[in-house]
Amino acid sequence: MKENRSMNNKLYVGNLPYTVDDSALSHNFSAYGAVQSAKVVMDRDSGRSKGFGFVEMGSEAEAQAAIEGLHGVSVQGRAITVNVARPPENRQGSGGGGGRFGAPRRAY
Question: Residue 2: what pLDDT?
Answer without folding.
Answer: 39
